[in-house]
Amino acid sequence: MENYTMEGRTYRYYGQEAPLYPFGYGLSYTTFRYRDLVLSPSVLPVCANLSVSVVLENTGLRDSEEVVQLYLRWEQSSVPVPRWQLVAFRRVAVLAGQEAKLVFQVLAEQRAVWAQDWRLEPGTFTLFAGGQQPGQKTRAPSEVLSAQFSVTGTARPLRGC
């Protein structure tokens, strides 16, 4: 195999074509609402980590679990990258009518791109938080929140951080 780009070979690189059963697809016995997505800091140096918090509320009548998923999208990159990439997830049990505040760390290495070696690049990124992939169409509705953050500095090899 000589072509390692994975373009057209895995759902992460299909372009606009969505997979039949994306990660997180399924039904729930209750409903959830996401709110208060906070990225800190919203502008960070190229080697820094990002802190993310989101509130998950069980708005249904049953106790249930939700798999909270965080996806990252590069708004501009010097090399081809996935449409979005799963960077964190957590299964959370929430009682009916209750809420939980979740805190995640998105590491700098999760923003690295492959350009003959792993590199970190400055630019604008979008982070998605929800119970499914961004833009997913399911029978059970689940919100996906999004927020942008910026990375400043000059591109550098990941091992240089």
From TrEMBL:
Domain of life where this protein originates: Eukaryota
Pfam families per the UniProt record, alphabetical: Fn3-like
Gene Ontology MF annotations: beta-glucosidase activity
GO biological process: carbohydrate metabolic process
Domain Fibronectin type III-like: from-to ranges: 66-133
Assigned EC number: 3.2.1.21
Record carries keyword Lipoprotein: no
Entry keywords, A to Z: Hydrolase
Catalytic activity line of the entry: Hydrolysis of terminal, non-reducing beta-D-glucosyl residues with release of beta-D-glucose
SMART domains for the chain: Fn3_like
Family note: Belongs to the glycosyl hydrolase 3 family.
Full protein name: beta-glucosidase
Gene designation per UniProt: Bglm
